[in-house]
Specification:
7-stranded mixed β-sheet, globular, methyltransferase activity, MnmM_MeTrfase, Class I SAM-dependent methyltransferase, transferase
Length: about 200
């Protein structure tokens, strides 16, 4: 196996745990690349909940999905409200933190408090062995604060409940993304945290 860049590695991890027929979540639909990947992966019997706070992102995602739109609920809402739409269990979830690529307004970015709340909720819904893949982009205003808050949060997750990895290419320029992946190790509805 060769070393994968961050986004392909995220998809590899998700493809190893998500099976056809499951419910999954794209917490940051963006331009729809991950939503399409998930929709293809869960098959005709599965379902994807894709969240974004920008209508332009959901429109772009719908266009990318084409015939697969019937497998996806496109939700114009923040991912921290996921419990209002998804009851679980879910096979996996994906986040791409930062701003909407190619957007006219790069000031609209993911926020630490909503991201962490969404991750916390999704961990409770996640099946045992499921993965939450979080691509972290920190080169924009507010990105470093979100990165630091995320890393502080995941370090508090009890190791018996959740395994956490950080994957990155160390010799890349211009604030390359890195991946934080969470694997749920046993069934629980409320995440245990350690001091």
């Amino acid at each position: 196996m060769k070393l994968l860049r961050v986004l392909p590695f995220s998809k590899y991890l998700l493809s190893e745990t998500i099976v056809a027929g499951e419910t999954v979540v794209d917490a940051t639909a963006g331009n729809g690349n991950d939503t399409l990947f998930l929709a293809e992966h869960v098959g005709a019997e599965g379902h994807v909940y894709a969240f974004d706070i920008q209508q332009a992102a959901l429109d772009s995602t719908a266009e990318r999905l084409g015939e697969l739109n019937e497998r996806v609920s496109l939700i114009l809402d923040s991912h921290d409200n996921v419990e209002q739409y998804v009851t679980g269990p879910i096979g996996g979830a994906v986040f791409n933190l930062g701003y909407l690529p190619y957007s006219d307004d790069l000031s609209i970015v993911t926020k630490p408090e909503t991201t962490i709340k969404a991750i916390h909720t999704l961990l409770g819904l996640l099946k045992k062995g499921g993965i939450i893949a979080i691509s972290v982009y920190d080169g924009h205003e507010g990105g470093k604060e979100e990165r630091d808050a995320l890393l502080s949060y995941v370090k508090t997750l009890h190791q018996a409940d959740v395994h956490v990895i950080r994957y990155e290419l160390l010799n890349q320029r211009n604030n390359p993304p890195f991946l934080v992946a969470l694997e749920k190790m046993r069934d629980f509805e409320t995440v245990k945290q350690v001091d």
